[in-house]
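# step 3/5: fold
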Amino acid sequence: MDNLPVIVAVDGSADSERALHWAAEAARLRSAPMQVVHVWPYVTSARAAAGTGDPVLDELRAKLAAEAVDLPETEFRSLSGLSDTQLPALGAEGQLLVLGSRGRGGFTSLLLGSNGMACAAQSSCPVVVVPRPDRGGTERGADGEAVRPAVRQVTLGVDATSDEPGAISFAFAEASRRGARLKVVSGYSWPMLTPPAFEYVAVYEASQQEYEDALGKQLADELAPHRTRHPEVEVEVELRNADAAGQLVEASRTSDLVVVARHRRRLPVGPRLGSVAHAVLLHAVCPIAVVPEGTGTGGDKRGAGSAAG
């Protein structure tokens, strides 16, 4: 078992409370401890280190106690500094970093807050963003919160032309933990406008069906070792000539979690999100996991891999 904690960022908002409840379940599924972290920009480092007098954590502890919320082994931490700097750095200390889609600050019209974007782009561990239930297409219950799908499902977005073992490993492990089926979604464009140079001749001499068959074989080869490692996971593969982000957003309506690789490094200008990951973070209606490069089997950092997205 990986003894690194599941870390969840809180700020006193309803969004961060949703993230906390999701993180608590994730920690239980992993038999891992949980850290509840509040980054307090207007406090001295000494006071934050003392762990007392943080009104956000004090209020949250009281609320959880009053509601008799069952938490895994939990540590509450108060940090001093800027949240969009401190939170991504916490990825080095945890196996999973969880946030709400927006916090107390910022504009209410934003689909994703700056902290979520910074963590998804920079954290060294997988990041899960829990969206608000008011996103279009969300099925909500009488309490206004999102209703879980009738059938447990983890959806993985993967590019059949890229090597994405980190995201694939994470998705299979998460489906196994949750007793969920895994839906693998892969999109492609035909005709290809800017194919990789080494594929140029082959693509334009092939028919669309031949190209799709070749992608399907490549994708099957990428999934094969993970299927062997997790024979208990039911896998459905959907390879279509369609926009990948749109397919994933649609699939999020019937999923417990959507998993994407972080980015495809086209320019050497530091860490940044790929277009698919960015679009899914903005529009998916279920929690979204963004998996970085170097993430090993099951989503931890014990193995190395390359993840693109």
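# step 4/5: annotate
Residues 208-229 form the longest helix (22 residues).
# step 5/5: archive (pending)
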